[in-house]
């Protein structure tokens, strides 16, 4: 099944595809809304009751990408109907980029999915959402060190407040336009 039909983005018109992936309740939908603004299409995954949101994200006047907000999942080993749909989308939809959105406070618990996504050969940006809550708990992260160790871009955000969205957009452009090597350093 073609992801263009699945995600309701049959008019991709050559746009690069970006999928938002992550556990339930990590702020994927808030991030999706922050990146796409008001243009959103909600479609039902064929044969299921699972809804998929898709929309368009513009960065400046030169870059336009198709975004798909996948249902929440804990790993690529699917258990629920939602996880099975997300797994199918990610593994067969051929995204040009995956934004793995995590709850910063629970990073250790969420990194296994990051590793699975990376092992599947997909370009990944780790999005540390709810970053303000993590800081409010007295926790700190060395983002540069984490980025170096993982070899992928890491961006902290507070999606509901729009914090970090421009940094995420810049990182997305770097990856999607081939300006980022996956060894932890820009070209």
Distance, first to last CA = 35 Å
Biggest β-sheet: strands ordered side by side in the sheet: 2-3-4-1-5-6-7
SSE-based structural type: alpha/beta
Strand tally, please?
9
Contiguous runs where pLDDT drops below 50 for at least 5 residues: 1-11, 39-46
Portion of residues in helices?
Answer: 25-40%
Give the averaged pLDDT, no decimals. Answer: 84
Note the beta-strand portion.
25-35%
Number of helices: 7
**Global Rg:** 15 Å
Give a quick account of the main beta sheet: strands, pairing sense, barrel closure.
7 strands, mixed
One letter per element, helices H and strands E, the order comes to HEHEEEHEHEHHEHEE
CA-based shape: globular
Quick rundown:
By secondary structure, the protein is an alpha/beta fold. The protein has helices at residues 3-6, 28-36, 81-92, 107-119, 131-136, 143-150, 165-176, and strands at residues 16-21, 40-44, 51-59, 63-69, 97-103, 124-129, 154-156, 180-181, 185-186.
């Amino acid at each position: 099944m073609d992801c263009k039909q699945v995600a309701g983005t049959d008019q991709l018109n050559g746009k690069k595809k970006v999928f938002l992936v992550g556990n339930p309740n990590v702020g994927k939908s808030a991030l999706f809304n922050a990146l796409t603004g008001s243009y959103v299409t909600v479609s039902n995954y064929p044969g299921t009751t699972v809804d998929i949101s898709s929309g368009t994200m513009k960065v400046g006047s030169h870059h336009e990408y198709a975004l798909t907000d996948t249902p929440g999942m804990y790993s690529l080993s699917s258990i629920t109907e939602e996880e099975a749909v997300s797994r199918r989308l990610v593994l067969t939809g051929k995204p040009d980029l995956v934004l793995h959105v995590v709850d910063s406070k629970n990073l250790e618990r969420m990194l296994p999915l990051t590793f699975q996504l990376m092992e599947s050969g997909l370009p990944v940006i780790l999005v540390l959402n709810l970053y303000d809550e993590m800081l409010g708990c007295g926790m700190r992260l060395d983002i540069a060190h984490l980025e170096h160790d993982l070899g992928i871009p890491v961006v902290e955000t507070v999606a509901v407040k729009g914090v970090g969205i421009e940094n995420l957009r810049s990182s997305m452009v770097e990856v999607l336009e081939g300006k980022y090597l996956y060894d932890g350093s820009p070209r």
